[in-house]
């Protein structure tokens, strides 16, 4: 394996993120080590892949810690538990993209992402690379869209609804509930990741070369941006459907907040009124993993047809 200057720089950044994550208590120690391994493997494929990962990490972290007091009041222990990510939470939103990066590195020698490589008659190899790149990008578009929708959507003034229950209005914090504001945030979350992809590829291509390129390249960039918003929306929709059906939410009506299952017995002992939403089949990490993989597969398939 030939170690490039680019890889060394990316590794130094990964180590810096590792240290900051522990110091600022963004991740647990296990979560930080998981992120270190993920960052190292993804770095092998080139800086475009790494920057997408970093963009997701920083934007989702910022969204999670925004207006902490409001979220603590609405979600209680659930928010305090979720805001500091552990290894399982980290891997639920990065394991499959990491595996895809390993496949890309093994088969394409880490040649990087080239979304502006327009070919009239793409080969099977090119289509496979397009699928893998779109899977990687689509996974993080979905993950970022879900994070923005949940972490920013909860700040909306309107009450969210459950689309599978006759658009019934429910309290904030219920898994699977959506609002107009949260839906817009999910679309913007997907577009944010796709815009990062576009900027990275312009940097790799060279700004002068990009400006001198024909209109097809510019239109392709616009198409990728819109595609990112669409994938973000699809990911958020899948997450919503799963969240309101196969993920349990316990809402304490008396205290007007979501509680963890561990606190159910104590709440009942205190005489609090509780409401239950969904089935207890998957936790949040499981929902994130399923949503990410399904959305990424959709993104990969559609990308081979569109791009």
UniProtKB/TrEMBL annotation:
Pfam families membership: DUF92
Topological relation to the membrane, as annotated: Multi-pass membrane protein
Keyword tags: Membrane, Transmembrane, Transmembrane helix
Spans through the membrane: 7-23, 35-58, 181-205, 217-238, 286-306
InterPro entries in the record: DUF92_TMEM19
GO CC terms of this entry: membrane
Subcellular location as annotated: Membrane
Family recorded in the similarity comment: Belongs to the TMEM19 family.
Protein name: DUF92-domain-containing protein
Organism of origin: Piromyces finnis
């Amino acid at each position: 394996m030939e170690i490039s200057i680019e890889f060394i720089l990316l590794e130094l950044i990964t180590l810096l993120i590792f240290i900051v994550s522990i110091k600022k208590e963004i991740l647990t120690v296990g979560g930080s080590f998981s992120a270190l391994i993920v960052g190292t493997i993804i770095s092998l494929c080139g800086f475009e892949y790494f920057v997408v990962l970093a963009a997701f990490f920083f934007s989702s972290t910022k969204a999670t810690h925004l207006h902490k007091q409001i979220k603590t009041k609405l979600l209680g222990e659930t928010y305090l538990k979720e805001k500091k990510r552990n290894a399982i939470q980290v891997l639920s939103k990065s394991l499959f993209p990491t595996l895809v990066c390993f496949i890309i590195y093994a088969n394409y020698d880490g040649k990087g992402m080239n979304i502006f490589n327009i070919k009239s008659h793409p080969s099977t190899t090119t289509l496979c690379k397009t699928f893998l790149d779109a899977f990687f990008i689509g996974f993080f578009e979905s993950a970022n869209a879900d994070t923005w929708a949940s972490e920013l959507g909860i700040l909306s003034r309107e009450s969210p609804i459950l689309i599978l229950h006759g658009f019934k209005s429910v309290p904030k914090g219920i898994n699977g509930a959506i609002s107009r504001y949260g839906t817009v945030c999910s679309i913007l979350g997907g577009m944010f990741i796709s815009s990062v992809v576009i900027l990275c590829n312009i940097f790799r291509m060279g700004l002068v070369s990009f400006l001198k390129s024909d209109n097809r390249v510019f239109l392709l960039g616009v198409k990728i941006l819109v595609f990112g918003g669409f994938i973000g929306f699809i990911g958020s929709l899948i997450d919503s459907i799963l969240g309101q059906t196969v993920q349990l939410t316990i809402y304490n009506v008396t205290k007007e907040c979501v509680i963890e299952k561990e606190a159910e017995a104590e709440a009942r002992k205190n005489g609090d009124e509780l409401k239950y939403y969904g089935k207890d089949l998957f936790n949040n990490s499981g929902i994130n993993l399923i949503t990410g993989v399904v959305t990424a597969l959709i993104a990969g398939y559609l990308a081979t047809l569109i791009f």
